[in-house]
Specification:
It is a single chain. This protein has four helices and three strands. A three-stranded antiparallel beta sheet has the order 1-2-3, with helices on both faces. The longest helix has 21 residues. The protein is globular and about 40 Å long.
Length: 121
């Protein structure tokens, strides 16, 4: 989960105890760009929680960049994920935040549209 935008969006939405348990299991490198330092990952997760979306810069697959957001009915636990991805050549750094905002807004709209019983525990 620490190597994808969707996975990081989920981690950022989980209680700290669950995040700690995940991190304690080890952060293996999937590519040379994968975050494997617990402190750096925790810092990034704080930023993701504030922004409402995560960015993956070649952390899961070299040459691929993505932005993702968790779908969280009533801002509860994530029940689904939404992301866009593309080749690094088309996902330049200057468009990642605007794309992330659009993905976040779409995820929030989906969460609002879901029936109340869609929330999972």
């Amino acid at each position: 989960m620490h190597a994808t935008s969707n996975g990081k969006a989920v981690l950022a939405a989980l209680p700290q105890a669950e995040v700690g348990a995940y991190i304690d299991g080890g952060l293996d490198a999937v590519t040379p760009h994968t975050i494997t330092d617990p402190g750096r990952l925790r810092s990034e997760l704080r930023g993701i929680a504030e922004a409402g979306f995560a960015i993956c810069r070649e952390e899961a697959e070299e040459g691929v960049v993505s932005v993702g957001a968790a779908i969280r009915p009533r801002h509860g636990r994530p029940i689904a994920l939404l992301s866009i991805s593309g080749p690094k050549s088309r996902m330049s750094p200057d468009i990642l935040t605007p794309y992330g905002e659009k993905v976040r807004l779409a995820a929030e709209a989906i969460a609002i549209a879901l029936p109340v019983d869609a929330e999972m525990s």
